[in-house]
Write a structure and sequence with these properties.
The protein has about 300 residues and is α/β, with parallel strands linked by helices. The protein has 14 helices and 5 strands. It is elongated, with a radius of gyration of 24 Å. It comes from Dysosmobacter acutus.
């Protein structure tokens, strides 16, 4: 995907416009609003345009375009363009192709061709990608954050594990493993009113663990907001520390979702989740796992599991 096209796609997915708030809170003339509307609609393109080109497309003078940019709080067109370029650079450095839809990825990065499939090469490339993803979790996180998150989960009264759409499987796994070793673990895996209901009774004594990866789901943003409103601790597993979903979290665990496939991978997230469970298990120790012993006793007694093993 070309740089300009990628910026355009990422820009449309970005949650915050550099110009939108300024336009909303600025009084402009009729012509000024027409210019501002053009700037908003073409925000990603402005990085590569001159004031003359903008004026020509709108049908106004260069001076009119420059006046509007100054009214919006910039020193002029070049200052606005510099700010937009900085934003574009930040997005290109912190965002990955995984922020783009599977269809866009299929069109621009993964021209899958069955007649060109070499399984041996694919397996080798996949292995390399997988190892890199796991190494990234280890190298891109301060491991003290894992310990801090583990202590936070252990100390909390209620533990609510959340994840929606493609993130629901890893959230469900984490909830299942955690519920085997400690009580009061719940999940929210469906992006409907039930997610709101499960947030209602949270307090400062509780903890929310949210799994959210590109493409970010709207309900994930809502869960993070509700957790903050309730004063509950918020631990987020996401693709990178600079993720827009990470704002306001107590702890962010970065687990990249890069993949050779057209869909994001949960491999790194699975690794991070299992590492967290391992740390919690060791912190609890066998003497504190009476809850697990109790569950195992009745699971065997009522035939959930067979005690006899081949």
């Amino acid at each position: 995907m070309g740089t300009i096209k990628k910026i355009d796609v990422l820009w449309r997915l970005d949650m915050v416009s550099l110009l939108e708030e300024r336009v909303i809170h600025t009084k402009l003339t009729k012509t000024g609003y027409r210019i501002a509307e053009y700037l908003l609609e073409n925000e990603s393109r402005l990085c590569f345009m001159t004031a003359t080109a903008v004026a020509s497309e709108i049908g106004v003078s260069d001076a009119s375009v420059i006046r509007v940019t100054r009214a919006l709080g910039f020193d002029g067109f070049s200052d606005m363009q510099r700010r937009l370029r900085e934003k574009a650079t930040d997005m290109l450095s912190s965002s990955t192709i995984e922020d783009i839809s599977p269809l866009e990825r299929l069109k621009n990065r993964h021209p899958l061709q069955s007649d060109a499939c070499n399984v041996e090469n694919l397996a080798q490339q996949w292995f390399t990608t997988a190892v890199g993803s796991l190494r990234g979790v280890y190298e891109n996180n301060d491991l003290s954050k894992f310990e801090e998150a583990a202590d936070m989960i252990i100390a909390s009264r209620q533990k609510l594990i959340c994840g929606f759409r493609a993130s629901s499987n890893i959230a469900g796994f984490f909830k299942l493993m955690l519920s085997l070793i400690m009580p009061n673990v719940h999940d929210s895996l469906t992006a409907d009113s039930s997610a709101v209901d499960k947030m209602m009774n949270l307090t400062e004594e509780d903890c929310v663990v949210l799994f959210t990866f590109p493409r970010y789901f709207k309900m994930s943003k809502g869960v993070a907001e509700m957790a903050r409103d309730k004063g509950a601790k918020l631990i987020i597993f996401t693709d990178r520390a600079s993720s827009p979903m990470a704002n306001g979290a107590d702890i962010v665990i970065a687990a990249g979702s890069q993949s050779m496939n057209i869909f994001s991978s949960n491999m790194a997230a699975q690794f991070a989740a299992e590492l967290m469970i391992t740390i919690i298990s060791h912190k609890l120790g066998i003497e504190k796992m009476t809850y697990l012993e109790w569950k195992e006793k009745y699971n065997i007694k009522y035939g959930v599991f067979d005690k006899n093993r081949d």
